[in-house]
Structure formats: C-alpha cells, structure tokens
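So, is this right?
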Amino acid sequence: MIDLIRRLLAPEPARLPEPDAKLALAALLVRVARTDGLYSAEEVERIDRVLARHHGLDPFAAAKLRSQAEEIEREAPDTVRFTRALKDAVALDERSGLMTALWSVALADGLREAHEDRLLRLVANLLGLTDVESALARQRAETE
C-alpha cells in the first residue's frame, strides 16, 4: 500500500499496475463517500458491491479491498493524483463506468450535497469526461 502512495507522489507517476489501479479506485470511492463528513453503512455496503461487481470479487475480498482503501485514502495525496493515475490505468470507454460507480457511492446515503457534486465534477473532468457524461453516469447510478 505504501508503494501505491509513493507512486502517486512521484513527480511523473508511471502507469499503475492492475492491483494498484484496483486499490486506487477503491480509495477514490472511499474518498467520495467521506466527502460529506459522514461514512455511512449504506456507503460502505455500496462500495463493497461496486468493487465486487467491477472486479469480480466475492464479498469477503471486496470488503478486504475496501478496508485497505480506507487506510490508503487517509494517507493519500490529493484527489487529483488519484484520479490522474486512474485515468492512465483505465481505457476511456471504461471511465464512464467508473463515474457511475462514484455517483452510486455518493448517492448511497440518500443525500446529494454540494461538496460531493463539486468533487465529482472535478473527478469527471480529470478522468477526461464531460459534464454531460457525468450527468448520464449519475442518472444510471440513480436507477441502479
């Protein structure tokens, strides 16, 4: 986990290997969930489901990945570096799926707050997605 943080802090970070890309996504999901100052059970459950579905993990492995991500997120650099690392690790056509997952976590507690909107707007931009693509991802998350 410390290697991931070192990679993210490097002046010119290299492309993340698959295990680190999984962990970076999980940490970004945790960061989105914690943005409003609350980290609810609904958000934790949603993160576990997203990780299980996105990476084909069983519930125990998804919870373990989330637990590691919680630790990384506490020590991690700014959101910009996380997101740029994910952008480099994930193909453009898969990034809208990441955005849907991020919106799904943000909406899991039933509240939509301005600081979550701002964070997700920044993340969408850093992932190379437009506001329209982010809005479509939010709509998909709302119907899940």
The mean pLDDT is 86. The helical segments are 2-9, 18-34, 41-55, 59-75, 79-89, 92-106, 114-126, 131-143.
